[in-house]
Write a structure and sequence with these properties.
heterodimer; A: 122 residues; mainly beta; seven-stranded mixed β-sheet; four-stranded antiparallel β-sheet; 50% strand; globular; B: 106 residues; 11 strands
Chain lengths: 122, 106
C-alpha cells in the first residue's frame, strides 16, 4: 500500500522559515515525480511545486517562487519543502502528492498524504 | 494560467441518485483532466485520470467524460460512502490548477 506521511507543520511567525518533509513507502520512490499542494482555510487547492524523479525538472507556483524550495532525497524516500519568508497567506494544509509518472508534465497525482498544517501568525 | 471552473459548488442528493459534476477549462487541455474525492481529515483519492480512465480499485459507478475544455464526472448511483468533496485537476500546463470543488451532501 502506498503511503505518504507529511511532517514539519506548525505555528510560525511571519517572515520566519519552516521545512516540511514527506516520506513515501509502499512504492519505488525514486521512480516517481512528487508534488506539494496546499489548501488555505476555506479555499480551494493550489499546486505549490513539483519535482521530477531525478530533480532534473522543478517548477513552482508564482506565489511561492523565490521563497520556497523543493528537494528530494531518493535514498531516504523523502521530498522536502523549504519555506522561507512565510506570509499569512501561506497558511493552510500542505499535502504531499505522488505523481503517476517519473516526469510530472502532462501527468497526474495518484496518491496523496493527509497533509500537515502550517499556521503563520504573530 | 489555466482557470478551472467547477460547478456546482455544492449539491444535495439522495442514495441512488445520478450525480454529475462539471469542470470547464479556460483553454484546451486535451485530456489532461483528473478527478479526485476528498473527505475531511483524509488524503484525497484519485478517481479518474486523463478524463476517462477509471483508477484501479475505484467503483465502476464513477465515470469521466469530455475533452478539450469541458469535462464531466458522473456518479451513476450515489452510495453513502460517496458523500464528500470532489475536485478536478488540470495537468496540461504549469501551474497545475484545480477546480473549486463540489461538496456532495445528503
Amino acid at each position: 500500500e502506498v503511503q505518504l506521511v507529511e511532517s514539519g507543520g506548525g505555528l510560525v511567525q511571519p517572515g520566519r522559515s519552516l521545512r516540511l518533509s514527506c516520506v513515501g513507502s509502499g512504492f519505488r520512490f525514486e521512480d516517481y515525480a512528487m508534488h506539494w499542494v496546499r489548501q488555505a482555510p476555506g479555499m480551494g487547492l493550489e499546486w505549490v511545486s513539483g519535482i521530477d524523479w531525478d530533480s532534473g525538472n522543478i517548477d513552482y507556483a508564482d506565489s511561492v517562487k523565490g521563497r520556497f524550495t523543493i528537494s528530494r532525497d531518493n535514498a531516504k524516500n523523502s521530498v522536502y519543502l523549504e519555506m522561507n519568508n512565510l506570509r499569512p497567506e501561506d497558511m493552510g494544509f500542505y499535502y504531499c502528492a505522488k505523481d503517476a509518472r517519473a516526469f510530472y508534465r502532462g501527468s497526474w497525482y495518484d496518491n496523496w498524504g493527509r497533509g500537515t498544517l502550517v499556521t503563520v501568525s504573530s | 494560467d489555466i482557470q478551472m471552473t467547477q460547478f456546482p459548488s455544492s449539491l444535495s442528493a439522495s442514495i441512488g441518485d445520478r450525480v454529475t459534476i462539471t469542470c470547464r477549462a479556460s483553454q484546451t487541455i486535451n485530456s489532461d483532466l483528473h478527478w479526485y474525492q476528498h473527505k475531511p481529515g483524509r488524503a484525497p483519492k484519485i478517481l479518474i485520470y486523463a478524463a476517462v480512465g477509471l483508477q484501479s480499485g475505484v467503483p465502476s459507478r464513477f465515470s469521466g467524460s469530455g475533452s478539450a475544455t469541458d469535462f464531466t464526472l458522473t456518479i451513476s448511483s450515489l452510495q453513502p460512502e460517496d458523500f464528500a468533496t470532489y475536485f478536478c485537476l488540470q495537468g496540461s500546463s504549469i501551474p497545475f490548477t484545480f477546480g473549486g470543488g463540489t461538496k456532495v451532501e445528503i
